[in-house]
Design a protein that fits this description.
The protein has 743 residues and is of the alpha+beta class. Strand 16 (628-635) and strand 17 (640-652) form a beta hairpin.
Length: 743
């Protein structure tokens, strides 16, 4: 959606919509406090839920219908909150009171995040790129920064070639590699092995930069991690703007064309952020084997929430795939580095200093995300810790300089990361009643169906309106549960000592030769054991306490839902094989293959990367020619045809795998432009994922089906590993029994 006639940098609509939202909040509170009989409440609540369901199609595209749906859903939640506060918190015994208060606090947190989400996304802004000035002489100079610490030269080479391919005015673009793995500190490490490795890396990357025509920069020490690396470069570069790309983020050729013009239009703009788009699956997508069949986990943030934040002038820097004004960064002394999410921290401080940001929602980088569960958790714990540091060090609610709507938007972004504790409370609460008899939630079946269930239904429908294209129902709960144990521990460490966390580089591009169970699985085994134990106690309570059967029904349904989520996590914890180093993305472009004796075979791509491709040939060439062939393909973004020498990796019928064999840097640049240069390819892939949106019940069945199949595979692997471990133990005992003992 787009605000008609809304100038990209105008402030007045934010203020108007913000005050309207506050006024509506007072109306909700008044209507929520009106007491009615339970039967009347059921009719009202379910009537509103039905109305919200009927208005869904219009709410997606019509701003007024969207506002009405959000207000109606919020009213159902407000009615639930009033009832929950006034009628369900009676005192039974001290332990029950503590458990009930913890659950109530978790619910209050969830409702607060829900309300903040409605506020942030009430009217998302979709910007069009601002064209560059007609005269290239008026274009600002741009320095491209690619920070690196331990990434492979092959990975860096692809990213640097992509940066060099970006279309821009000659002489106004300079690419820098910022090597934090070859600092003087690391090259002089007391450990001679580590020192030699750092020296070799520095020498290799210097040679790579010289060959590609890229500037190589390093520094004396590694203080401040990524933030310190970039800050060390800022005084040594001279561009008006700074484009930052992670070492595994390859930009498309049109990246600068679609981002730089905004800086020419607004001198107070400090940031244009674009989405992070990933060409490899995350652990859920890989281990569930659903990559490309469901929306990516990050699409919810980059395709919806950032639009909402942008409408409140609160879209923030995400560390990569962004352009920043160097003058603005220098005005706050560079990236702050007081938190380990220095990108969001910098944006917060710059917004507080009166600078503005913009978000352009077009995927124009191809990046890598962590594929193993352990590296995924490591990344998310770092994000959670960094956001908690920001909340403690630069509280958005009190930081001078921010508008009140910016305070709420930023508070939503940092407060969200307390979800691990709430999620764990929701997981354990039903077992506290079923096993220990603690009264954590006092309600009969009629009240539950009149207040709680309509609230849950309205929230699901609202999320479907806001995020349905980019996040299926219940998938958020699954991702949150998968992170909760370890993120909760990380957050606790920050609360005890806000300065304690250290920046750790997230492992990427990992290979796995065998199927194995993640070493982080044990806490989830405990939760599953507790869950099934709770169901056993539920049967006992059903038989021995007939008066509590309504409460047992409610709690058992809750526990079954928790077990379904845990079943889904079991599938994520089963790490499946990953042998391909360079991920390949689908492509349907046409090509010609020149084989022996000058023969030409027409083909189309099935998938493509910077290192090779898979072709579907119009006719088989198996056994007829040698392994060396030449691929001819028209590259739209280059507006010309290129020839690529290739080596045959395999042939199966009319399918062929080819490995590219470039003969020059120019040819390498052409290959990267072919594989990564066209943003239309990423747009089409994202749209294809979003076109597979599922209604709530279908998404629930998807979760159940993949969860239990993943659990079955997990248990099978667990049995195999158990048998193998037992056999190894027996063999070791036998070896010790027959080996002579020497004095």
């Amino acid at each position: 959606m787009k605000l008609q006639g809304f100038h990209p940098w105008a402030r007045e609509p934010w203020r108007a919509w913000g005050w309207a939202w506050v006024l509506l909040a007072f109306v909700w509170v008044f209507l929520a406090w009106i007491p009615v009989p339970v039967a009347t409440q059921a009719v009202l609540a379910w009537g509103v839920v039905v109305l919200v369901a009927c208005m869904q199609p219009w709410a997606r595209h019509k701003p007024l219908a969207r506002l009405v749906v959000l207000c109606l859903a919020a009213w159902v939640t407000a009615r639930y909150l009033v009832w929950r506060t006034t009628e369900t918190l009676g005192f039974h015994d001290p332990l029950s009171w503590v458990a009930a208060v913890l659950l109530f606090a978790a619910e209050l947190y969830g409702i607060a995040i829900y309300a903040l989400g409605l506020f942030v996304n009430v009217y998302p802004k979709v910007r069009r790129p601002v064209p560059l000035p007609a005269d290239p002489a008026d274009w600002p100079t741009v320095d491209v920064l690619v920070p690196t610490y331990n990434e492979s030269p092959e990975l860096l080479e692809t990213t640097l070639l992509g940066a060099l391919n970006m279309r821009y005015a000659p002489g106004k673009l300079t690419v820098y590699l910022l090597d934090d793995g070859g600092t003087r500190q690391r090259c002089n490490d007391p450990d001679p092995v580590r020192a030699a490795a750092a020296q070799e890396r520095a020498q290799t990357l210097r040679a790579l930069c010289q060959r590609l025509g890229v500037q190589y920069l390093t520094r004396d020490d590694n203080r401040g991690a990524k933030a310190g690396n970039i800050n060390a470069a800022l005084p040594r570069i001279h561009g008006d703007l700074v484009a930052v790309f992670d070492a595994d983020h390859v930009p498309t050729v049109d990246f600068l064309e679609r981002t730089v013009g905004a800086f020419c239009a607004d001198p107070k703009l400090f940031l244009v952020q674009t989405p992070h788009f990933f060409v490899n699956p995350d652990p859920l997508e890989h281990n569930w084997r659903v990559f490309g069949r469901i929306p990516s986990e990050n699409d919810m943030f980059y395709h919806v929430i950032q639009h909402g934040l942008d409408s409140w002038d609160a879209s923030f820097f995400c560390g990569s795939a962004a352009v920043l004004r160097r003058k603005a960064l220098l005005s706050i002394g560079g990236l702050p580095g007081q938190s380990i999410t220095e990108d969001a921290e910098a944006a917060l401080l710059l917004h507080a200093n009166g600078w503005r940001s913009a978000y352009i929602d077009r995927p124009m980088v191809a990046g890598l995300q962590p594929e193993t569960y352990s590296s995924f958790v490591s990344q998310r714990v770092r994000w959670a810790q960094g956001m908690m540091q920001i909340m403690l060090i630069h509280n958005p609610l009190t930081l001078p300089g921010l508008r009140w709507w910016q305070r709420l938007a930023y508070f939503n972004s940092v407060f969200f990361w307390l979800f691990p504790w709430a999620r764990l409370v929701f997981m354990l609460a039903p077992a506290l009643y079923l096993i220990f008899g603690l009264h954590v939630y006092q309600a009969n079946l009629a009240q539950f169906f009149s207040y709680a269930l309509p609230h849950l239904a309205a929230a699901l429908l609202t999320n479907q309106v806001l995020y349905g294209r980019v996040r299926w129902a219940f998938i958020s709960e699954l991702y949150e549960l998968a992170q909760s144990f370890y993120a909760a521990s990380g957050i606790w460490r920050v609360l005890r000592n806000p300065r304690s966390p250290r920046f750790l580089v997230t492992p990427k591009d990992e290979q796995r030769e065998q199927v194995f169970i993640s070493q982080l699985a044990r806490p989830f085994y405990v939760l599953i054991l507790i869950g099934f134990l709770a169901l056993g106690f539920a049967a006992w309570r059903w038989i021995n306490d007939p008066a509590a059967r309504e409460t047992v029904i409610i709690t058992v349904a809750w526990q079954i839902f928790n077990l379904i989520l845990l079943a889904g996590v079991m599938g994520v914890l089963l790490e499946r094989q990953q042998r391909r180093v360079a991920p390949r993305m689908p492509s349907d472009a046409r090509a010609s293959l020149w084989v022996g004796n000058g023969a030409q075979v027409n083909a189309r791509f099935a998938d493509l990367s910077a290192s090779g491709c898979r072709l579907i040939l119009d006719q088989s060439v198996a056994g007829r020619y040698g392994d060396e062939m030449t691929l001819e393909v028209h590259v739209d973004v280059l507006q010309r045809t290129i020839l690529i020498p290739t080596r045959v990796a395999w042939i199966r019928g009319q399918e062929m795998g080819l490995h590219f064999e470039p003969e020059s840097v120019a040819m390498q640049r052409d290959i990267v432009a072919l594989g990564y240069g066209d943003s239309r390819r990423w747009v089409a892939f994202r749209q294809q994922r979003e076109s597979q949106e599922r209604p709530i019940l279908s998404a629930a069945w998807f979760l159940v089906r993949h969860g239990w199949s993943g659990t079955a595979a997990h248990l099978w692997q667990l049995g195999r590993e158990g048998v193998q471990g037992a056999l190894r133990f027996i063999l070791r005992r036998q070896e010790r029994g027959v080996t002579p003992r020497h004095s």
